Structure formats: C-alpha cells, structure tokens
Amino acid sequence: MSRTSKKYAAARAGLPAGAKFAPDEAVKLVKSLSFAKFDETVDVAARLGVDPRQADQLVRGTVVLPHGTGKSVRVLVIAQGPKEQEARDAGADFVGVDMIAKIQGGWLDFDVCVATPDLMGKVGPLGRLLGPRGLMPTPKAGTVTFDVAKAVKEIKSGKIEFRVDKQGNVHGQIGRVSFSETQLAENLGAFMDQIVRSKPAGAKGTYLRSVTVSSTMGPGVAIDPNLYRKA
User: Fold this and answer.
1) How many CA atoms lie within 13 A of 215 on its CB side?
2) Which sign, positive or negative, has the C-alpha torsion 107, 111, 116, 117?
3) In whole angstroms, what is the distance from residue 59 CA to residue 197 CA?
C-alpha cells in the first residue's frame, strides 16, 4: 500500500460508515480530512433521478459561485469591431476573430470561449475540436452573446457550467481546501440551489438521490439529500 493510500485510509476511517451530514458539517469534514501538500480542489457530485437519454430530462445550466472557484480562468472572446475592446476592458485573456485559425491549428490554451452571435457561422466548424472538450460556446451557457463584457466578468468572478452525464450525475468545482468553511458552504449552497431549480418537468420519482463533497485526494463526504428536497 502506498503512502498516499495509507493517508486516504486514515482519512476514510474518520467518517462513520453510512453517515450523512448537513452541508456546513460536510465541508468542515472535507477540510479536516484533506491531507495533500497542495491546495486541493473541493468538488460536489450529485446523482439525479433523470434519464439523460430523454431530451426532456437533460439537466444543464450555469451558476455564479459567490466566492469563485479559486482557479484562474483563461477566457477567449471571439468578437470583432468595438466588441473586441469591450472584451479586453472586461478582462478577457485572448480576443479576436484571428483566434479561429489559431484553434484550427491546434491551439487550445484557454478554459472558456465566448463568441458573439454574428460570428457563430465561423465558430460553428470548430465544434469537432471544442465540443468534446466542453469549450464550445452555447447560448444555454451564456457564452454566445453580444454582451461580452458581462459574460467575461461573470466567468472571471466564478461562473461555472454544469451538465448531467450519461450516468445521471452532475459535478461541479466549488472551491479549494484553503477556502473558509463559510465560503465553501455558500458556494455549495449556490450550486445545489441551481441544481434543484433545474429539475426538468419530465423527471419522475426522486430527483435528488445523493450528494457528495470531496477534496481532490480525500474521501467523499455524503450530504443528506432530504435537506435539499425540503428546501
């Protein structure tokens, strides 16, 4: 057994078997059970009672975390004319129509891509490159818009996108271990509130089946999903 495995086992032993916690208690445990020498990411995973194969049961959207993710996000804006300067003034890292050719050449050193609607005809062919990586601009995510300044500022301040996977799970990064318990709890609350609000009309039975928070290396801490159902 590796040293890391021993540390994980020790952390896991600190959790009562089958126990579920309130959100604030859960993030406190995640912080106390983290053991890596780097500032671990804190993630949330929610298992939903939906069938992602059905168009009316897809769960996807965006949420602005009140305290951000703790990650520096590189934003690319594909725009032209006055919108280019607007994007630069808002803090975009890369701007311009010429970035399309750069992407076609294999450049992908950015985390989020925003594009103005008038240029989607040129951006569309990039779907085969950007789509599989989750980088394709979409109206649903608010990344196809003429209000590039608002989009860039929201992304830089902590806006994240979520989407249910084929197994019915939704994942999101809600901060880092170095965040305070209050910051993590508030970010978690914002994320889960949006997940609950995103319940599709076609979903039947129990919508929120399980919620777990964890750090990069640490064990998962289960949250009582009934707390969100009551809310």
Assistant:
1) 25
2) positive
3) 10
Q: Which of 71, 81, 80, 74 is nearest to 100 (CA)?
A: 80
Q: C-alpha dihedral over 29, 111, 169, 32, to 10 degrees?
A: -10
Residue 185 has, within 13 A of its CA and on its CB side, a CA count of 12
Give the integer Cα–Cα distance in Å for 215 and 156. 22
What would the pLDDT profile of 83-93 be if each residue is shown by its tens digit? 999 999 999 99
Give pLDDT, residue 43. Answer: 96
Residues in the chain: 231
Q: What one-character-per-residue DSSP string does 60-119 give? A: EEEEE-TT--SSPPPEEEE--THHHHHHHHHT-SEESTTHHHHHHTT----SEEEE-GGG
Give the Å distances, CA to CA, from 167 to 45, 51, 56, 199: 12, 8, 16, 16
Tokens encoding 90:
């808002």
Predicted confidence (pLDDT) per residue in 53-63, tens digit: 888 898 988 89
Helix (H, G, I), strand (E, B) or coil at 219: coil
